[in-house]
Amino acid sequence: SSSCGPDYLALVVGFPSPWSLRGQSEVGMAPVPSAPKRMMLLAIGAIGGCGLGTFVATITNFALVEISVSPMFSVYFGGLFILVGCLILWRVASHEANEPLPLPKLHLAVFASIIVMSGFLCFLLDRKMFVGLRPWMKVPLYSVLGSAVSFAMTFAIVDVLNFVVGLCQASLAKPIVESAHQVSLVLCVSLAMGMAFGFTFGVLDVANEDEYHIRVALLRDEKFSQPVGALLGGLTGFGLEFFRQRDDYSMAAKGKTEFDEDI
C-alpha cells in the first residue's frame, strides 16, 4: 500500500518523491492558459475533489469499523501509524538547515505525535481488547483516529495522482501537489475531514452495533459523512488548482520555470 511507504511523506517532511523529479532536466516554458481554460480547470479540480472526498469518507468509515471489530486490522493500522509517526519525528529531528521543510518544525512534531497517538488508539478502541470504555468517551478518540486514517488515505491518493500525471506528461512532469501552500491545504483538510468522520462515527456509536445491524448503522453514518467529504474535497480540489495556477502565472510573469532553482 502506498500509504505505508515514504512516498506520501515526501509531501509533508521533504523526502524526495521519485516521480516528482521526473523531467526536471528538461526546462520549458508552458504558455499561460486563457481565462476560460483556467475556470474549466478550477471546475474540474472541484468536481474531482468532490468525488475523492466522498471516496475518502467511505473508506475512512470502513477502516474505523474494521479497527473496532477486527484485532488483525487494529494491530495492522496501529503498527502502521506508530511507524509513520516515528518516521516523521525522525525526519524533523535530523533535518539540516539547508534542507527546508514544507511546514514549521513544531507543527510537524505535533502532527507526528498525533499520528503516533492514533496508533495506540487502534489498540484501545478494539472492542474485543478493551470493553470497559464508555461510548461517549470514544467520540474524541475516534476523532483523532479518524484524522490519522483520513491523512493516510488522502496522501496515498495524492501519491497515485502525482504518479499518473507524471506518466501522462511526456517531457515536463509537474506534480499536482508540490508547493508548501498545497501541502498545507491537503494536510489541514485531511485532518479536518478525519475529525468530522470520527466524530460522527463515535456519536452514532457504530462500532457497538451487533453484527446484523452494523451495516445499517454504517449507512446511517455515511449519510452525514459523505456530504461533508464531498464539500471539503471539492474545496480542496479547487484550492489546489488555484494555488497551482497562481504559482505558474507568477513564475511566467517573471520569465521563470518551476525548475530554475533546482538548475
Describe the structure.
The protein is built from 7 helices and no strands. 69% of the residues lie in helices and 0% in strands. With 263 residues, it is an all-alpha fold. Helix 2 packs antiparallel against helix 7 and helix 6 runs antiparallel to helix 7. The radius of gyration is 20 Å and the shape is globular. The longest helix has 40 residues.
Please render the helix and strand layout as text.
Blueprint: H1 9-13, H2 35-69, H3 71-94, H4 105-124, H5 135-168, H6 180-203, H7 214-253
Helix pairs in contact: 2-3, 2-5, 2-6, 2-7, 3-4, 4-5, 5-6, 6-7
Mean pLDDT level = 76
H/E element order: HHHHHHH
Structural class call reads mainly alpha
Number of helices: 7
Any idea what the radius of gyration is? Answer: 20 Å
Strand content: under 5%
- State the oligomer: single chain
Q: Which consecutive residue ranges, at least 5 long each, have pLDDT under 50?
A: 1-6, 15-29
The coarse silhouette is globular
Distance between the termini: 33 Å
Number of beta strands: 0
* Share of helix, binned: 55-70%
Main β-sheet, in a few words? none
